[in-house]
């Protein structure tokens, strides 16, 4: 299964015809794989470099410094730092569990989450004393991801032949979340034992997720031609501008009544270590932007996707209700 890399400039700078071409290609990639990859996506390479520098510095702060902004597990949107083991993605899919509750099937990762800067309902937590520059950078980067995500929604509206604004209008005001992740070094044997993974197979909750990974590798998506097997999403080749990986998430699946289904993904052993039975995986860093519908928006199927042949598969509910229902499973 080949995931083609698409040139997003065809949409942002192209003619009407080119925009339609890109909209169609993007929609096809999402329909076939639940994933797409973009170059010329509008997030400059120097910003991505700085993002990785920032997250490395943040995660290397002392435990004490990070604990000042620890996220208290709750069904509410996540804010601040989550220690290793706080979240168990294994619980999101029955296939992972094999009869276990999932409590011991842990994720070997720590992460930091923030929401929109003007979110007074679920305010952000920043390491103001210990790393004052983090907040300003992350807030700017958040805005950039939100802008690119809205452009991707416009392209998807074209590809799905939806009226203009059908998706975009559901995402303003923003309720997205930005997460940076650190996977500490781990032995290959530990992963092969089967109780611990960097991230267990899961789908994300929002509409789409924008992802950048470092050069270590390990991200994999489910190969829909062979369900239950995974194919690597390789890191960008050295010297090339970072590719943006996009996955379709649960809310998009609900809105389109399964016309486009969410991409199952995991973080496993990097492709080049396959066949190795011992050794240590190095630190891995990644950044994910969970692009979400605004909280009061109905995330039931859009009328365009309900017909006699394709009856409604999901109940109406608000994006926030759906979010809380999903985060409850994680803790
Ligand atoms: O680190 C990655 O590449 C993926 C992380 C992920 O899937 C998530 O946090 O939802
Ligand atoms: Fe994910």
From TrEMBL:
InterPro entries in alphabetical order: DIOX_N, IPNS-like_FE2OG_OXY, IPNS-like_sf, Iron_ascorbate_oxido_reductase, Oxoglu/Fe-dep_dioxygenase_dom
- Annotated coiled-coil positions are none
A molecular function (GO) held by this record is:
metal ion binding
What are the alphabetically sorted keywords of the record? Answer: Iron, Metal-binding, Oxidoreductase
Basic and acidic residues bias (residue ranges): 84-96
GO biological process per UniProt:
small molecule biosynthetic process
Domain Fe2OG dioxygenase residue range list: 173-294
One Pfam family of this protein, by short name? Answer: DIOX_N
Gene3D superfamilies referenced in this protein's UniProt entry, alphabetically: B-lactam Antibiotic, Isopenicillin N Synthase, Chain
The reply to whether Iron figures as a keyword in the UniProt entry is yes
Q: Would you identify the family this protein belongs to, as annotated?
A: Belongs to the iron/ascorbate-dependent oxidoreductase family.
Q: What is this protein called?
A: Fe2OG dioxygenase domain-containing protein
């Amino acid at each position: 299964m080949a995931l083609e890399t698409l040139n997003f400039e065809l949409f942002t700078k192209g003619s009407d015809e080119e925009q339609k071409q890109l909209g169609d290609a993007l929609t096809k990639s999402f329909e076939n794989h639940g994933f797409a990859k973009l170059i010329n996506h509008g997030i400059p390479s120097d910003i991505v470099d700085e993002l990785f520098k920032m997250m490395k510095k943040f995660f290397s702060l002392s435990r004490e410094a990070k604990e000042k902004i620890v996220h208290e597990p709750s069904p509410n949107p996540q804010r601040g730092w989550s220690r290793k083991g706080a979240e168990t993605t294994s619980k999101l899919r029955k296939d992972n569990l094999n009869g276990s509750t999932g409590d011991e099937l842990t994720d070997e990762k720590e992460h930091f989450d923030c929401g929109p800067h003007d979110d007074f309902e679920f305010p952000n937590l920043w390491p103001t004393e210990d790393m004052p520059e983090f907040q300003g950078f992350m807030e700017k980067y958040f805005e950039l991801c939100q802008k690119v995500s809205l452009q991707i929604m416009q392209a998807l509206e074209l590809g799905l032949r939806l009226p203009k604004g059908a998706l975009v209008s559901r995402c303003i005001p923003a309720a997205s979340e930005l997460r940076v992740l650190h996977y500490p070094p781990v032995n290959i044997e530990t992963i092969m034992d089967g109780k611990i993974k960097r991230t267990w197979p899961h789908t994300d909750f929002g509409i789409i997720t924008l992802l950048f990974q470092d050069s270590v590798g390990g991200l994999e998506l489910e190969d829909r031609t062979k369900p239950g097997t995974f194919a690597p999403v390789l890191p960008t080749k050295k010297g090339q501008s970072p590719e943006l990986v996009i996955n379709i998430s649960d809310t998009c699946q609900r809105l389109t009544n399964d016309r486009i289904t969410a991409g199952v993904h995991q973080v496993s052993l990097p492709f080049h270590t396959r066949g190795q039975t011992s050794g240590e995986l190095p630190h891995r860093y990644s950044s994910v932007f969970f692009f979400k519908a605004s909280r009061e928006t109905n995330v039931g199927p859009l009328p365009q996707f309900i017909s006699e042949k394709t009856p409604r598969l999901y109940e109406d509910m608000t994006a926030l209700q759906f979010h809380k229902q999903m985060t409850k499973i994680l803790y």
